[in-house]
Amino acid sequence: MARYTGPKHKIARREGINILEKESTSLQRRLNVPPGGIHGRKMRKRLSEYGQQLREKQKAKAIYGLLEKQFGNLVRTVEDRKGDTGEMLIALLETRLDNVVYRLGFAKTRAQARQMVGHGQVLVNNKKLTIPSYEVKLDDVISLVPKAQKNPQVLALLEDKDKIIIPFLKRQGLVGKLVRMPKREDSQVPFDLQLIIEYYSR
Q1: Which of 16, 77, 82, 101 is deepest in the core (most CB within 10 A)?
Q2: What would the mean pLDDT of 9-15 be, rounded to a whole number?
Q3: Are residues 66 and 131 in the same domain?
Q4: Are residues 78 and 100 in the same domain?
Q5: Domain that holds residue 76
Q6: How many other CB atoms sit within 10 Å of the CB of residue 8?
Q7: How far apart are CA 92 and CA 75, in angstroms?
């Protein structure tokens, strides 16, 4: 299945969440109105248990920009490990290289971060890596190639004093590092991990 490249607003309204990763007053106003406007709200039926599980899974995929196969593989990976399945799933999602680049503030959105990685603008331990799904390891050093470091958009993002670096990462200038494994409470994701695990356990 190809990655969806259509309007992000459409997905955001369907899932009822802002997946644009930036403030949008017009979108925020429309999130409470499902596709179809008032009629869509009237016609929307109460979701079955399966329907609820499916919606939560779709939310997570939309937020992290993953295809069905990619997301399903992540869930199956954690199901084979010992420990809290939901906690481990969050850790795998959050340690994807594209997500770490986004969380460090090097990119405005995860989609932009994925593009930067794919175009060879990101270094891991001073080596160019073009795999967005690479699982960042503890103490891996994430930086940008010299050309990307001079990009006006990147420099503007780094000057954002309101940008909060998520607790499991540390950033100094144009260099970031994974200092500990992500925990569920770090990311405060707007989807139910348990329902997602149940979906794939059917």
Answers
A1: 101
A2: 56
A3: no
A4: no
A5: 8-90+188-200
A6: 19
A7: 9
